[in-house]
Amino acid sequence: MAEFDQPEDLLSAAERVREEGYRNVDAYAPMPVHGLPEALGLGRTWIPQIVLAAGLLGAIGGFVFLYYITVIHYPHNVGGRPFFSWPSYIPIMFETTVLLAAICGVIAMIALNGLPKPYHPVFNVPEFLRASQDKFFLVIEASDPQFDKDRTREFLEGLQPAGLHYVED
C-alpha cells in the first residue's frame, strides 16, 4: 500500500499502476478525486439500468394491479364514470414506479459493491486511519495476477510515495 500526500500524486500513481498492468487495485481518499475511477480502470455501473427497469416494472405492475381491481375483480360504479378510468391510475402508478425503483436501486448498489464488507486487511495498518482525514492510499491486492511481493514493492517505491506499507492478511 502506497501513501500519498496530494490527490494529484494518487491520480498519477493510479494511472501508472494501470499502465503497468495491475488490475486488482483500489484507492482510498478523504474526498472525491476527479478522474480516479477512470485511472483505476473501473467500468460503468449497472445501477442506472437496473433502476430504470425496476421503475418501468413498477409502473406496469401498478397499472395492471389497478386495472385488475377496478375492471375485473371489483368493478364499482362511482359517479357514472367508466370502470376503466385510467387518469385516476396515474398517482398510484407514480408511487409504485418510485417505490420499486428505489428499493431495487438500493439492493443493486449493496450487491454490486459487495457489501456488507465490515473488514478489510488495510484496517490493520495504523497509518490508514488518516485515509479519512488528509492522506491518499493506493493498494495493489495480492490476488492480482501481476503481483509479486518484491517486484510490486520496487514498482511502488518508484512512484515516490510519502510512505509504503505492507498489508498483512
Q: How does this structure look, described?
A:
The protein has five helices and four strands. It has 169 residues and is α+β, with helices and mostly antiparallel strands. It folds into two domains: 2-43 and 121-164, no CATH class; 47-112, no CATH class. The chain has a four-stranded antiparallel beta sheet with strand order 2-3-1-4, covered by helices on one side. The longest helix has 27 residues, at 47-73. It is rod-shaped. It starts with a strand and ends in a 5-residue tail after the last strand.
Protein traits:
169 residues; alpha+beta; 2 domains; four-stranded antiparallel sheet; rod-shaped
Structural topology:
Layout (H helix, E strand, L loop, with lengths): L1 E3 L2 H14 L4 E4 L7 H5 L6 H27 L16 H23 L23 E5 L8 H9 L5 E2 L5
Helix pairs in contact: 3-4
Would you tell me the overall average pLDDT?
A: 94
Percent of residues in helices comes to: 40-55%
Quickly count the domains. 2
Report Rg: 25 Å
Strand content: 5-15%
Tertiary shape: rod-shaped
* Estimated structural class: alpha+beta
Order of helices and strands: EHEHHHEHE
Summarize it.
With 169 residues, the protein is of the alpha+beta class. It contains five helices and four strands.
